[in-house]
């Protein structure tokens, strides 16, 4: 399977729109899809590696939760030493197959443990870094706090969580403005009106964004002592949170 194909999944009017799923079709086009859909995606991936370089300690593990094809995993590998392991987890079999394929010629790939599992039932231990890059938004709302608490419990003292999410903007004018600009970003990246509208429908009830305030409140409730919001591009925001 090739994983670099152009994303035309939502350009087919004859295919009924169904709820978005990380299946083999999405895995095949994922690098193109995410680059053209998420403003700042390359920076998020690059910065995850730089954060790992600062916080990873010898003998500890970095977790890439909802790793898809492993862009963050590879970024962490590039910036960490041989005594740091990377646990790359996704519950979509097509993504984990793609991750393994894309790790084949990567230096240090023997430090990666690919895991096909639900992050909600994963044991997290000796973690110096946990990354949730655009993953928490797909976890049922009622389960998000419990997941963050388990992550917090699995981090070593001084360990950090990197969280990046699409956010909801509650104020009418600003919310509408950022949504329009995000759709302009997709248009500028070659997506058709049809594709933009069909994907919007497919993501409803599947990707459930929350406000910046809700995320920050939950980080505190999950036991993180402090957090820092370090990135925003349109309606995509990232934080680090410390144990
Ligand atoms: C938008 S993608 C993440 C992108 C990826 N982190 C990156 O930086 O390229 C969301 C991923 O989370 C995975 N995912 C969603 N819910 C999950 C769960 N409960 N357990 C494990 N993986 C999950 C999906 O299969 C998908 O690959
Ligand atoms: O919000 C959108 O329209 C998106 O396309 C965003 C998003 C994401 O944030 O995960 C949704 C699904 C794909 O995984 C790639 C990008």
Automatic annotation (TrEMBL):
Key words of the record: S-adenosyl-L-methionine, Transferase
SUPFAM superfamilies tied to this protein: S-adenosyl-L-methionine-dependent methyltransferases
Classification via InterPro entries: CmoA, Methyltransf_25, SAM-dependent_MTases_sf
Domain Methyltransferase: 64-159
Subunit and partners: Homodimer.
Function summary: Catalyzes the conversion of S-adenosyl-L-methionine (SAM) to carboxy-S-adenosyl-L-methionine (Cx-SAM).
Annotated family: Belongs to the class I-like SAM-binding methyltransferase superfamily. Cx-SAM synthase family.
Protein name in UniProt: Carboxy-S-adenosyl-L-methionine synthase
Organism: Thiorhodococcus minor
Phylogenetic lineage: Bacteria, Pseudomonadati, Pseudomonadota, Gammaproteobacteria, Chromatiales
């Amino acid at each position: 399977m090739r994983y670099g194909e152009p994303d035309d999944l939502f350009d087919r009017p004859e295919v009924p729109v169904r709820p978005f799923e990380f299946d083999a079709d999405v895995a095949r086009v994922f690098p193109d899809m995410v680059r053209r859909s998420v403003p700042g995606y390359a920076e998020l991936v690059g910065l995850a590696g730089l954060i790992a370089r600062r916080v990873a300690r010898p003998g500890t593990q970095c977790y890439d939760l909802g790793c898809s094809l492993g862009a963050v995993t590879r970024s962490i590998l590039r910036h960490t030493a041989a005594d740091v392991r990377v646990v790359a987890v996704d519950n979509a079999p097509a993504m984990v197959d793609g991750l393994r394929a894309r790790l084949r010629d990567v230096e240090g790939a023997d430090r990666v443990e690919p895991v096909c599992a639900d992050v909600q039932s994963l044991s997290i231990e000796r973690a110096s870094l946990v990354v949730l890059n655009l993953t928490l938004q797909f976890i049922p709302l009622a389960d998000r706090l419990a997941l963050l608490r388990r992550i917090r419990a699995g981090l070593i003292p001084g360990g950090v969580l990197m969280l990046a999410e699409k956010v909801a903007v509650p104020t009418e004018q600003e919310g509408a403005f950022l949504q329009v600009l995000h759709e302009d970003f997709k248009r500028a990246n070659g997506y058709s009106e049809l594709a933009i509208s069909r994907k919007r429908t497919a993501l409803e009830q599947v990707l459930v964004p929350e406000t910046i305030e809700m995320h920050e409140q939950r980080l505190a409730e999950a036991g993180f002592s402090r957090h820092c919001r370090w990135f925003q591009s349109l309606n995509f925001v990232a934080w680090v949170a410390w144990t």
